[in-house]
UniProtKB/TrEMBL annotation:
It comes from Microbispora corallina. Catalyzes the synthesis of alpha-ribazole-5'-phosphate from nicotinate mononucleotide (NAMN) and 5,6-dimethylbenzimidazole (DMB). Coiled coil: none annotated. Its EC number is 2.4.2.21. Keywords: Cobalamin biosynthesis, Glycosyltransferase, Transferase. It catalyses: 5,6-dimethylbenzimidazole + nicotinate beta-D-ribonucleotide = alpha-ribazole 5'-phosphate + nicotinate + H(+). It is an enzyme of class 2 (transferase). HAMAP family: CobT. The gene is cobT. This is Nicotinate-nucleotide--dimethylbenzimidazole phosphoribosyltransferase. PANTHER family: NICOTINATE-NUCLEOTIDE--DIMETHYLBENZIMIDAZOLE PHOSPHORIBOSYLTRANSFERASE. It holds the Pfam family DBI_PRT. Transmembrane segments: none annotated. Belongs to the CobT family. The active site is at residue 327.
Length: 361
């Protein structure tokens, strides 16, 4: 069995008994029932993921930033030169990016994985070289990846998750870096959530109206050229999902999908970042629907495709600050909220233990 098959095989629904126990525990704590809103749901979900109540604290946590380039950059869909991908990888390993600042603030480690940067990168601390290709082909002209490349990139994500969990991490956070990757994200959202390009193609790093219209056309062409029906969700199921991923995805999208599957297989919560992660999670969900139960939507980004992906996945974002950066920044901001939700389960007294009268008693 391949690592991908093994991961998919190992994924189970989150544990119903632990969920029920966690709900009952929440109701015994010295607070009005439901008063912690969505945080109660998060704590209950983490109990279900771990299969125990209270769940372990989601620490240490690790961010993995998957970096790759995109052939579709040639269509002028991003105002930034492709070299910025490699330059930002150097910035991450030097500690100078926003993701590094947020990771330092949250006490999260940063691993950068080169899964497909279109340049040879010098070795650096925290950089893992798992290059599958020097970028994808142009998805608006034909498939972005061969099926083998997509499978290999998925396996890179599975392996990264496995390694980080084996190193003792109890929470995984997704990150991405890849100039033009919001174009592939939009195409994936169309393919996996059955949406129209015009509704889910955003402005990425910041493009003018004319470029935005061109980007929508590029996504439309990508779907047409690759035989993916517009506004018709692809069949769920492994082969169709792998084909659609290879056709219009990116190497980092594939790796992030694998990372989600690897985290779910290890029964560790995976905090998703923005639209790149959201579109990759759609792929993971098509490959293993029960993986979604292991995902926490860290935030909702300003990219319209992200909201569409989260709706399709049934995930509620924890933070909504109009971020549109990626790198894992939204996931990192959400991590303290996830920790706080779990800490309540460990530290807060029950009505019985604290001698506080319940509303009925
Ligand atoms: C300096 C810089 C740092 C970034 N960090 C994340 N992104 C984000 O923006 C890119 C996607 O936007 P688009 O599809 O419009 O190219 C990705 O690299 C994503 O990680 C960055 C982009 C830039 C320019
Ligand atoms: O949603 C995101 O994470 C995002 C948006 C714009 C550019 N890069 C990433």
């Amino acid at each position: 069995m391949t690592p991908l098959d093994e991961a998919i095989d190992a994924i189970r629904p989150i544990d119903a008994r632990a969920i029920a126990e966690a709900r009952a525990h929440q109701d015994r704590l010295t607070k009005p029932r439901g008063s912690l809103g969505v945080l109660e749901d998060v704590a209950v979900q983490l109990s279900g993921i771990a299969g125990v109540c209270p769940p372990p604290m989601p620490v240490p946590a690790a961010l993995a930033i998957f970096a790759a380039d995109h052939g579709v950059h040639a269509q002028g869909v991003s105002p930034w030169p492709q070299e910025v991908t490699a330059q930002m990888v150097a910035n991450f390993t030097a500690g100078g990016a926003v993701a590094n600042a947020f990771a330092a603030q949250a006490g999260v480690s940063v691993t950068v994985v080169d899964v497909g940067v279109a340049a040879d990168l010098p070795p650096a601390p925290g950089l893992v070289s798992r290059k599958v290709a020097y970028g994808t082909a142009d998805l608006s002209q034909g498939p972005a990846m061969t099926p083998d490349q997509a499978a290999e990139a998925l396996a890179v994500g599975v392996r990264t998750a496995r390694d980080l969990v084996a190193a003792g991490n109890r929470c995984l956070i997704t990150g991405d870096m890849g100039i033009a990757n919001t174009t592939a994200s939009a195409a994936l959202v169309c393919a996996f959530a059955g949406r129209e390009p015009a509704g889910v193609t955003g402005r990425g790093t910041g493009i003018d109206d004319e470029t935005h219209l061109r980007k929508i056309e590029v996504v439309r062409r990508a779907l047409r050229v690759n035989g993916i029906p517009e506004a018709g969700a692809v069949q769920e199921g492994r082969d169709a999902a792998l084909r659609a991923l290879a056709a219009v995805g990116g190497l980092e999208h594939a790796a992030i999908a694998g990372f989600v599957l690897g985290g779910a297989a290890a029964r560790v919560p995976v905090v998703l970042d923005g639209v790149i992660a959201g579109s990759a999670a759609l792929v993971a969900a098509a490959l293993a629907p029960d993986a979604v139960g292991h995902c926490v939507a860290g935030h909702r980004s300003a990219e319209p495709g992200h909201a569409a992906a989260l709706t399709h996945l049934g995930l509620r974002p924890l933070v909504d600050l109009e971020l549109r950066l990626g790198e894992g920044t939204g996931g990192l901001l959400a991590h303290p909220l996830v920790s706080a939700a779990v800490r309540v389960m460990h530290d807060v007294a029950t009505f019985d233990s604290a001698g506080v009268a319940d509303k009925d008693g």
